[in-house]
Amino acid sequence: MKKLIALVLTVAMLLTLTAAMAEGDRVTITYSYWGTPEESASTQAVLDQYNASQDKVTVELMCIPNEQYTTKLNSMATAGELPDCGIMNENGLLAFANAGLLADVSTMYDNSDSKPLECLTFKKDGETPVAYSGCNEILMLYYNKDMFDKAGVAYPSATADGAYTWEEFIEVAKKLTLDKNGKTPNDADFDANSIVQYGCVIDNWTWQLEVWAQSNGGAWFSPDGKECLINSPEAIESLQKVADLTLKEHVMPLYLGLADEGIVRSVASGTVAMATGGAWNMGTCMSGSGINFGIGVLPYMKEKVTACTSGPQVVFAQSKHQREAMDFIAWYTKEENSWGLIDSGIWMPLLEKYYTDSTAMDTWLKSENFPIKDYDMAKAVLVDYTKDYAKSACWYYTPNTSDFIDLLRSVLSPVWSGDSTAEEAINANYEALKASIEDF
Question: What is the model's pTM?
Fold first, then answer.
């Protein structure tokens, strides 16, 4: 009996020791995030779910106020105290990568049934993946169906095959632009100083303008992101064409503001017939606007193209647990964990399977809560157009785009007002624009 008791006690001690060792083997990693206290609470709930789902890793949340986020990360990098992983602003990410602060994440999705879309991959020197976006967003065309119906004009196409040429886009915009007497720019007595309804808005929030250089057969940067090409004839012409919608064609309102609000001040306000905007606008402002709206593909100058973007999730190179951090980020960015944002139309899915597999595709496009009820329209614009025509925004392959875009915004202001041509403004400021991406 004594031997039996001793054996039981020994087994119990071993089990206790094993459990303690297992608990001690659990790795702790830190995930940095910005946001309000409410957003932090929501993020913590997702982390709690991950922590409870397995016994290998514990993820702790480091919440930093948005306005202090980049400064704080820079300070932590200098001190060698960066978190293991976190969210970052897309336009400053490659500067971090070039400083050796981001890990190579090319193996992040090796254990997944699908990878992110290629155009949502941030690449150092145009080659090494150092981050993936947390979701997808594309630029597209929104339009007011009632305005088109009243003018007797066919709706913009949802397919790339039927996309407006730039000249067709202008002609349609003229039919939908009205002065206080109901006259259009095609009428001899049209009053350009008393316009009450505009035909279009091409959002001139600066980063969104890059797509028009690409559409015109040009680019702002070389594929490796190291050469500034915004002074090319194609890039300059594309900017002037956008400005001329206001200055020459009288189909777009003048806008000199410094806010990202193109759809809010156009189609969603009921004063503009069609406007370019991001997919996020479906859920952020259009679905609750009361406007009978549709979505279509962008017009094009020479080539059909749209831009894609979204904020990146990163693994920092200083982390001692890069594999665990990559596994967590791959889990954290699963569509299932952000379904409310996808379901509402604010986000589009990240992974390829939601654009290639019909079952996965239908889970978002056929949801009863999705703001676009026309399945064929939604599939044509959000899936087919994305899959075949989406290109990465500049920050996926170009460093220091934050400084470049801030400078370009001020450079272009006199172009929109007509006080300078695009050629004059770009050529006068080209060296400074060029230097802004080189000084990193």
Answer: 0.91
